């Protein structure tokens, strides 16, 4: 289960980065209409919140272990 959760986290992170790139593309190409840019950024924020929740839940269930950097 640990491997599946880590793969899911990486996929979610890549989707968040893709939405950020998509928003940049829409911002550069759509000069008159900002709706697609705003929608892509809104999706990125929502997916980032889901990603953070997945990390917290994975840590609480013991699927993800902290490595203690900085301690």
From TrEMBL:
Taxonomy, superkingdom: Bacteria
Keyword terms, alphabetized: Membrane, Transmembrane, Transmembrane helix
Transmembrane segments: 7-25, 45-66
Alphabetical list of InterPro entries matching this protein: DUF2909 (IPR021313)
Protein's name in the database: Twin transmembrane helix small protein
Organism: Rhodanobacter glycinis
